[in-house]
Design goal:
single chain, 232 residues, alpha/beta, seven-stranded mixed beta sheet, two-stranded antiparallel sheet, 7 helices, 11 strands
């Protein structure tokens, strides 16, 4: 089974703020993106690793992230106007022999190799898998005037994370259909779901957070230092 991982890391990081894109920021002594790539490599499930970067950032990424961390990737791809376009660009570069595609956010550096393996195994068995955690807050649906229109049953709600893993033919078809329809989704799973394919939920972890703000970065630092202290 040939597995390709696509890591979209082409965002501007505008919500994070600051002059340095968040993938280059230091997290426990290494660039944030390096931790993401290390976990994917350590899973032992990835045969081809594609890194999607902002156009023109390949050399900087290699010099500031990969080389100091002792890492490498198989392919660099220039990202698109949004995350969906960036993943689509990565798909276009994936080897024809690829049977399973892993999509994992570059800004989720705390994913574990074990979680990557669990998601890949679930997708290999059923065709599609999304790492997610049960929602603990009560979720309200608002009407256009800001009033509560509906309270959703919390027991059925999950917050999607990455990795999200799919049969390569399903994901390629899903992106092609979305492009033809002019549909923009918030993750890859919703594109696959539009085709009617089943997607299994794989229990994730609250620690598998996406670094979007400086508060997230500080929390990631605390979690990672605890893991390092405990030898994880």
């Amino acid at each position: 089974m040939h597995v390709t991982a696509i890591v979209p890391a082409a965002g501007s990081g505008s919500r994070f703020g600051g002059a340095v894109p968040k993938q280059y920021l230091t997290l426990c002594g290494l660039p944030l993106l390096a931790w993401t790539l290390k976990a994917l490599a350590a899973s032992g499930r990835v045969d081809c690793l594609i890194l999607v970067t902002p156009p023109g950032q390949e050399a900087r990424c290699r010099e500031e992230i990969l080389r100091p961390s002792g890492l490498d990737v198989d392919l660099f791809v220039s990202g698109g106007a949004d995350r969906q376009a960036s993943v689509c660009a990565g798909l276009a570069a994936a080897p024809a022999a690829t049977e399973i595609i892993v999509v994992h956010d570059g800004a989720r550096p705390l994913v574990t190799p074990e979680l990557v393996r669990a998601a890949v195994d679930a997708a290999a068995a059923g065709g599609g898998a999304v790492v997610a955690v049960p929602v603990t807050d009560t979720i309200k649906v608002a009407d256009p005037e800001g009033r509560v229109a509906e309270t959703l049953p919390r027991g059925r709600l999950w917050a999607a994370q990455t990795p999200q893993v799919f049969r390569a033919d399903w994901l390629r078809e899903a992106h092609a259909r979305a492009l033809a329809d002019g549909y923009r989704g918030t993750d890859d799973s919703v594109l696959v779901e539009r085709l009617g394919h089943p997607v299994r939920l794989v229990p994730g972890s609250p620690e598998n957070l996406k670094v979007t703000t400086t508060t997230d970065l500080a929390q990631a630092e605390r979690i990672l230092r605890t893991r390092m202290t405990n030898g994880d």
